Amino acid sequence: MGFEYVIAAGLAIFIFFNAKKRGNNALGWAFGTFIFWAGVLPFYFAKRYLLSGETREGGTAWNVCKYFVLMWTAFIAIIFFACMSDAADSASHLTNEYEQAGAGLGMILGSGFILMLWFIPTIAAAIIGFMSKKNSVIETGPTGPNA
User: Fold this and answer.
1) In a domain, 10, yes or no
2) Phi, psi for residue 135 in degrees, rounded to 5
3) ∠58-39-4 over CA atoms, to 5°?
4) Which of 23, 65, 85, 112 is deepest in the core (most CB within 10 A)?
5) For 11-16, which contacts have Cβ atoms below 8 Å and span 24 or more sequence positions?
6) Total domain count for the chain?
7) Is 120 domain-assigned?
8) Does any domain span residue 147?
């Protein structure tokens, strides 16, 4: 089992218990988190019921975008380190300088691709988030069916 699955399982367990405590659909949120945590968690954090003493500002769209940027950054960082680890392991078996140079060039190009894969959605989410932020919207807990 890869460490990606361990991270997804750990997050799903955390979300299950957190959602259960708040009165949200614990099983649904946990399953979605395990399948694609970087895409599901922003919606969970933006829509989950608030406990007493908690506040949330800016509206749903702002919070989804804000948490998407955080989760997407973490997701891409995990992907980046996994890819670089695999590439370094593969490059350690190369026999001459031409193969090593090609591997180095491939790592640079791959890193650039992963950087763009992070940059474009992050900038888009930041722009959408800042454009949709409503400073007048402040939610105060408790919210939800247990309020």
Assistant:
1) yes
2) -65, -20
3) 135
4) 65
5) 11/37, 11/41, 12/37, 15/41, 15/44
6) 1
7) yes
8) no
Q: What are 41's two structure tokens?
A: 């968690």
Cis peptide leading into 142, omega within 30 of 0? Answer: yes
Tokens of 45: 């954090």
Q: What is the pTM of this model?
A: 0.84
Q: Mind listing the pLDDT tens digit of every residue in the chain (147 residues)? A: 477 788 899 999 999 999 999 999 999 999 999 999 888 999 999 999 999 899 999 999 999 999 999 999 998 998 898 888 888 888 888 888 898 888 889 889 999 999 999 999 999 999 999 999 998 888 888 887 766
**Residue 51 identity:** L
Cα R_g (the chain), whole angstroms: 20
Cβ 114 vs Cβ 79: under 8 Å: yes
Note whether residue 146 is domain-resident: no
